[in-house]
């Protein structure tokens, strides 16, 4: 404290100068309209530029919430589209044969996920309390993700395409030939499409979508694009498909509730029993 | 030879009490001269001689720095109050007073300033006084006009005003050395 006092006393000239200049400028801004407005204008320029940059920075911290809000909104809009029966107007979207809501989208957030195992699973933050039940489909904006296998009150586990137990009925978008999508357990970017007969014309770059043959996935959800075709002399193409969804960046997942699922399954069971 | 003559003259120079009274009178004189007479002179609509700063210029060398800067503030504020521009002349005068010790140190003669002398033409010659005055006035005018315009967009125009006004004020102060502040 005493040293501080000595410091001020030793430099009294400089501090007095600063003090009196500060006082002068206070008077200037207090009583001179032009200088005040110029000062306020200048400081506003600086502060608003600063705030602009800072809010740009700060907005990153709110991105998660923003994303969540957007994904909820997205699901609601999709629901509305389905309800209006106008899905068929949008290319690549689910075509609803009935003019009522057949598919209901529930947004959820991925809590844990893995891609480096042979049997990968995802966990999302929606459970039976939110109307989730096993065998619901999970998709993102970019394509298929997987199927709900287990449900607790608030969480559910999804078996993604990147699991060697996973089978998905998929078809070529251009000519409706369907096959089975399986993961070979190697790269998280590629799956293979099997059981497409050799006589079918398949080209790299062709789009693969869900067939809608199971009551799980709606028809026409994007799976990926064909990367390469290998023919080893069998009856079927060996097709390598590049997944459209990047499982390493999975964050928001929409779970699809199929309104007529029970009805279809009951019908199928009846046929099987006969 | 010249210095000896001047040192002899010092004996007849006013005593210490006299210096205070003289400077207090000088303070009011320059303020009144400035606000009553010189502020009504507007050469070319822009130029206004700011003669009042001569008070800071002519304060004794021994004036304590803190007193110097406080006097400058009071001087500037007095002129401001008459001009309706509170703070503007005060800030410029304070800046000028802040510059004074450095300027004096810079222009000091080899032997330093003799005690009992004042920063005037009479003691240190016209060359020394002109250098000292121009630097001091320039710092004052630069500060004043920058505060007045308060932005750097018209910097060339502002600088032109600063230079012209500095020349005018310096001339007035130099002339005053031969008529008013002879000693």
How would you describe the overall organization of this protein?
The complex is a heterodimer of chains A (274) and B (183). With 274 residues, chain A is of the alpha+beta class. Chain A has one domain (62-274): Beta Barrel (Thrombin, subunit H). Chain A is 33% helix and 27% strand. Chain A contains five helices and twelve strands. Chain A has helices at residues 2-10, 12-31, 33-58, 63-84, 261-273; strands spanning 103-113, 122-124, 137-140, 143-151, 156-160, 168-172, 178-182, 190-194, 207-210, 222-230, 238-243, 252-258. The longest helix of chain A has 26 residues, at 33-58. Chain A is elongated and about 105 Å long. The mean pLDDT of chain A is 82. Chain B has one domain. Chain B is an all-alpha fold and 183 residues long. In chain B, helix 5 crosses helix 6 (121-149) and helix 6 (121-149) packs antiparallel against helix 7. Chain A binds chain B through residues 12-13, 16-17, 20-21, 23-32, 34-35, 38-39, 42, and chain B through 65-66, 69-70, 72-73, 76-77, 80, 85-88, 90-91, 94-95, 97-98, 101, 147-148, 150-151.
Concise structural overview:
The complex is a heterodimer of chains A (274) and B (183). Helices cover 33% and strands 27% of the residues of chain A. Chain A is an alpha+beta fold and 274 residues long.
Give a quick set of tags describing it:
heterodimer; A: 274 residues; alpha+beta; Thrombin, subunit H; six-stranded antiparallel barrel; B: 183 residues; 7 helices; 69% helix
CATH superfamily of chain A: Rod shape-determining protein MreC, domain 1
**Largest pleated sheet of chain A:** 6 strands, antiparallel, barrel
Largest interface, Cβ cutoff 8 Å: A-B, 21 and 24 residues
Per the CATH scheme, the topology name of chain A is: Thrombin, subunit H
Discrete helix count of chain B: 7
- The average pLDDT of chain B is 82
The helix/strand order of chain B is: HHHHHHH
Question: In percent, how much strand structure appears in the residues of chain A?
Answer: 25-35%
Helix content of chain A: 25-40%
Query: Could you say what the CATH architecture of chain A is?
Result: Beta Barrel
Q: Give the N-terminus to C-terminus distance of chain B in angstroms.
A: 18 Å
Q: Beta-strand percentage of chain B?
A: under 5%
